[in-house]
Amino acid sequence: MYEKTYPSKRFQHTLDFLKKHVTPEETILDLGVANPFSKIMKEEGYSVENTKGEDLDIDYSSLVSSNADVVTAFEIFEHLLAPFNPLREIKANKLVASIPLKLWFSPAYRSKTDPWDRHYHEFEDWQFDWLLEKAGWEIKDRAKWTNPVKKIGLRPLLRSFTPRYYIVYAEKKTDKLGF
What we know:
Distance between the termini: 38 Å
Strand order of the largest sheet: 2-1-3-4-6-5
Largest sheet: 6 strands, mixed
Number of strands: 6
Oligomer: single chain
Number of helices: 6
Order of helices and strands: HEHEHEHEHEHE
C-alpha cells in the first residue's frame, strides 16, 4: 500500500494523539488488517490485535468477541457503507479513530484496481462527529492536520493549508441511545 509514499507526518500525528489518550497497559483492537501503523504501535509498547480483513459492514464478530480496552480505527470508516453499525457493536469503552476529510477541491478516492481501497464516505468533521454521537460515543478530544504534497499546482497549494485528516478520542456513553 505504501510502495511509493510513506505517510510519516500522518503517522507521527496519529501516534502523538494515541499516546495522549491511551497507555501501553491498555489493550487495543485495531480495525483493519495488520499494517505499518499497527507495527508502529507494537514498537511503542502497545498490545495490538488486528481484525482479519472481514467485511465490517456485515461481520461484527471481531468487535463482539474482543476484550480490548480500546478500539482504534485509522482511516477505516470511510471505506464502509454503514459505519454506524460497527460503531454500535464495539464493546470497548474507548475509541481513537481518524478519517480523511472531504476536500471540496478533490473527488472521493477510488482505486480502480483494489475494491477494498475505495472511499464510500468522505466526511466533513461535523458529519463524523454526528455519526459517533448517534452511535453512542462522546468525543473527548479532536485534532486536524494538513497533508501537503511536493507537487506544483492549485490543488497541492490548497493541500498545504486545508486540513486533510481528522482524529478523535471518544468514550462510550452510558446511555445506549446515543443522545
